Prior knowledge:
The protein is an alpha/beta fold. The protein contains 11 helices and 9 strands.
Amino acid sequence: MNWISNVVPPKIRSLLRRDTPENLWVKCPESGQLVFHKDLEANLMVVPGSGYHMPIGAKARLSSLFDDGDYEELIPPETPSDPLKFRDIKRYVDRLKENRAKAGAADAVTVAFGKLERQDVTVAVQDFAFQGGTLGLAAGETIVAGIFAAIERRTPFVIFTTSGGARMQEGMFALMQMARTTVAVRRLRAAKLPYIVVLANPTTGGVTASYAMLGDVHIAEPGAVIGFAGARVIEQTIRERLPEGFQRAEYLRAHGMVDLVVPRPRQRETLARLCRLLARVPTAQAA
Length: 287
């Protein structure tokens, strides 16, 4: 008989025994190393030993990027939640509620304004925790609104991408976001403002086929999978074995599809330098 649970009153029992969080230690998928979750968070979700880049939430990424962690979020445009009234094993509106509770955001993309080493920038972050970072009507509208806000404020536009592609529950409405975001990027370019893309793991499907590959500079996180179709689908189509590391950030850097591979802890300084260079901000003014 467990005397603590059966004899001791509940109020005293809470003092004698304390629940341990389930995620106190996190296992690295690559090396199997166990990392204390606080150490992992302090290192921007990068495993200290192996350098493996684990997923990071939108708010954590934005806080680590902007000066003093201060930023202003763009209010996302209002869009129909379920334009096709889609349902499979559960209703699409119910899936959206679950993902909003899990990710703590209205949809997969968050846009914010702030200062990066004293320079005004507009930043969009895609969150894989929200239904695999899929591109739907709300996410596309938010990206377009963010680009237009960057044009109005005359700031560089930086986007962090991570996605499984277009959102199947929204059909053609999701696919149209590929064209709409592409047009918005062209307007940003016509305004002669920098557009920098940071490709996180994974960036695939319609996102890769649109705004993720239209940047002035493409930065990838180490080990990130970047491509349109999956490697297995390509092998089955061409009936050949793909090269080792195909679609990984390092392979794409070696073959000219990505400009830089930059670990997450060094991205802030790299992005600040690129924004100053592309926006032609004098060094004295930036300091």
